[in-house]
Amino acid sequence: MLGFLIQRLLQAVVVMMVISALVFIGVFAVGNPIDVLISPDVTQQIRLDTIAAYGFDKPLWEQYLAFLERLVHGNFGRSFVFNMPVLQLILSRLPATLELTIAAVAGATLIGIPLGMYAGYRPDSPITKAIMGITILGFSVPTFWIGLVLIMTFAVWLGWLPAGGRGDTVMVLGIEWSFLTLNGLSHLFLPALNLSLFKLAMMIRLARAGTREVMLTDTIKFARASGQSDGTILRRHVLRQISIPIVTVFGLEFGSTLAFAVVTETIFSWPGLGKLIIDSIQSLDRPVMVAYLMLIAFLFIIINFLVDIAYAALDPRLRARRS
Amino acid sequence: MTARLLEVRHLATHFFTRAGVVKAVDDVSFDLEVGEVIGLVGESGSGKSMTGYSLLGLIDPPGRIVQGSIKLKGQELVGLPQEALRKLRGRRIAMVFQDPMTTLNPVLTIADQIHLAINAHERVSTATARQRAVDVLTRVGLPDADRRLDAYPHEFSGGMRQRVAIAIALLHRPDVIIADEPTTALDVSIQAQILAEMKSLVRDLGMALIWISHDLAVVSAMASRILVMYGGRIVESGPTASVLRDPRHHYTRGLLNSLPSRAAPGQPLTQISGLPPSLGALPPGCAFHPRCPRADAICLTAPETTGHERRDWRCHHPLTAVSA
After folding, report:
1. Are the CB atoms for B34 and B207 separated by under 8 Å?
2. By CB atoms within 10 Å of each CB, which of A26, A45, A297, B316 scores lowest?
3. pLDDT band at A293 (very low <50, low <70, confident <90, very high)
4. Dihedral angle at the C-alpha atoms of B279, B280, B282, B287, nearest 10 degrees?
5. Which of B89, B91, B107 has the CB atom closest to A240's CB atom?
6. Same domain, A171 and A98
7. Residue numbers of B between 221 and 260 with CB closer than 8 Å to A
8. Burial class (CB in 10 A: 0-12, 13-18, 19+), B189
9. Cβ contacts of residue B324 below 8 Å, gap of 6+?
10. Chain B contact present for A229, CB below 8 A
């Protein structure tokens, strides 16, 4: 186990190094922020001074080395636009996206697995046909359109739920959370629903495919022959065996939603990371872009690590191979 | 005469597939007495396993039992509701399958799997379940059962896994155990051990056993009576010694002649020419006629079961009894 941890840690360091170089070069190629930062009518001297102050006059590799040096000291730089430390800026936006992502991915998983298992267990029932119809909608209708329809229906026509924003928040552990107030929950519901539809469809499909496959195995036949009820078989035998692909997709979806919930956050004006990155790309706010992308890479490393640990917990055969 | 434990009459299980009706079990009748061991012999796809599943009520759509009756101690099982059948499975009729590598759940410990099988019919505490698991595993000859309870199936050898599966089948002391080729996937030396143990277990616990196999040699070592199945039907049945000595059906004789022990050393083994028919497209009449050396026009009509009680066959041209 210790060997596994050390190996993963070294891998993570290498991945982060490569990512930092790619991101730095990529962002450099996007455009020159000077033209956005200062007004076009300043004197040439001020212009040159500003360029020098940000270090834009140096060659790329020197800028990268300076960036790495600051990074080692935990300094991601300051945002050009907000004029505050980037790390602080990103962390202030993270909770909003985090609670939206957890609500969407966990909701989709908790609802999708039972529905998918039912669909796999009773492939010919009319309920299954209805469930599979929903998954086709979830896969094929674009998120932005569903978001607009949800706002039209629930916010404009019915007036039941707010159309955007985070609502009331509560401070817990120095962080603002919406899900702890009733008003905040009502704000969270629609964007989370919008984000979760695609994931719900995917979870249903995964659980259905897995259940259909496992139900045909001798393991299930033997369990049935020993008199175990279908409910016990689904809960104790099938669920465990289909959970590996589900955990994999759960991890990937969690990471990508955290990073790229841009469309939903924009439609529902949810003040999360997605909106921040879009704004920073528009204003060529280099430090924000770089720090954001590296944070996402870091989150994926953490998620993959947790997923691997979950594999070992779920399947004893993998545990044996690793030790 | 002992009480009749199981009475199967004219049992037919058909599968209604898009390609047509597959007659997996067709007009099968047999009896089983308390404590008796019978062997069900036939090639792959002759309907042996489906007969076993029919007895357990484990036929899933598109298949169903289309006619016949199965009586367990006088209680009719055909047509019982699902929940009533579930309560019988594992408690009164249990089954052991061919491949112990696939029957146990790879992600649950042995203790958990035994606990689930106990809980299917009675609520017991984890401690009680563990004690019963140790008892039953010791009974089937698993050394250090206590220490191995928390192991997973992949940590066991094939023979040990099959012992666990047999232990699970024994948990509720069923009246009948259906063993579907339980030794086929094992090494020959392990096979012999399991055979011997099953035999003594059945004798000690007074259970009846239906031993399904394609291997006449194995069955003749186990069973007091043999049923030979071909194309979903029982083509010959009788006491083991009598069937082996005086086969009446040409298929049974073909099977016997192809046993390696019957061939002279160095001589090629005799085989039955042709291939077993698909259950979805059985030849008309006697299903064996395309492969039978004695077949003629009358074989295109189905032969009735003839003979006397406990020794019968389905053939228009039965072989004459050698010792008659």
Report:
1. no
2. A45
3. confident
4. 10
5. B107
6. yes
7. none
8. exposed
9. B246
10. yes
Number of domains present in the structure of chain A: 2
CA torsion angle B248 B250 B254 B257 (round to 10) = 40
- The pLDDT of residue B252 is above 80: yes
Where is the domain boundary, A20, A41, A72? A72
The alpha carbon of residue A315 is apart from the nearest alpha carbon of chain B, in Å, by: 6
Indicate if A198 and A278 belong to the same structural domain.
yes
- Rounded (10°) CA dihedral B214, B220, B223, B227: 50
Which residue of chain B is at minimal alpha-carbon distance from A315? B107
Distance, in Å, from the CA atom of A115 to the CA atom of A175, rounded to the nearest integer, reads 35
CA distance A221 to B307: 37
- The full set of domains in chain B, from first to last, is 4-92+214-313 (3.40.50.300)
Select from A271, A273, A239, A244 the least CA-distant residue to A257: A273
pLDDT single digits (tens) B38-68? 999 988 888 888 999 999 988 888 899 999 9
Q: Are B180 and B212 in contact (CB under 8 A)?
A: yes
Q: Which residue of A has its CA nearest to B62?
A: A124
ipTM of the prediction: 0.87
B8/B72 Cα distance (integer angstroms):
9
**A101, A160, A178, A199, A270 from A151: Cα distances, Å:** 19, 10, 19, 20, 13
Q: What amino acid occupies position B247?
A: P
Inter-chain touch B86–A221, beta carbons under 8 Å = no
Amino acid (1-letter code) at residue B231: G
